[in-house]
């Protein structure tokens, strides 16, 4: 059984998938590229809200423009405060 800290998506995936990759906030990522979510720097409420939208560590997304992402065929618009807390790595 996982402890409370290990069960939290944000703490389990707090590092990029490989040592050579450097994560960056989604708001600073280049438009038109694909990215993988490395972690979400937020509390339990933010992590739960993002997971409900389909944004959690390991998910691939396509950044259409600043704040607009395509995930699993759906389109989401995220504010700067939220996209600043979502760390991504190029996929």
Give Rg in angstroms: 12 Å
Structural class: alpha+beta
Number of domains: 1
- Would you identify the regions where 5 or more consecutive residues have pLDDT less than 50? 1-18
Looking at CATH, which topology would you report? SH3 type barrels
CATH homologous superfamily descriptor: Ferrous iron transport protein A (FeoA)
Let me know the number of strands. 6
Oligomer: single chain
| Overall residue-averaged pLDDT value | 82
CATH class value: Mainly Beta
Strand order of the largest sheet: 1-6-2-3-4-5
Specify the helix fraction band: 10-25%
Query: Count of helices?
Result: 4
How far is the N terminus from the C terminus?
Answer: 31 Å
Helix-strand topology string:
HHEEHEEEHE
What does this protein structure show overall?
By secondary structure, the protein is an alpha+beta fold. It has one domain: Ferrous iron transport protein A (FeoA) (SH3 type barrels, Roll). It has helices at about 5, 10, 45-50, 80-85, and strands at about 25, 35-40, 60-65, 70, 75, 85-90. It has a six-stranded antiparallel beta sheet with strand order 1-6-2-3-4-5. The termini are far apart. About 25% of the residues are buried. Residues about 1-20 have low confidence and may be disordered.
Could you write a compact summary of the structure shown?
This protein is of the alpha+beta class and 91 residues long.
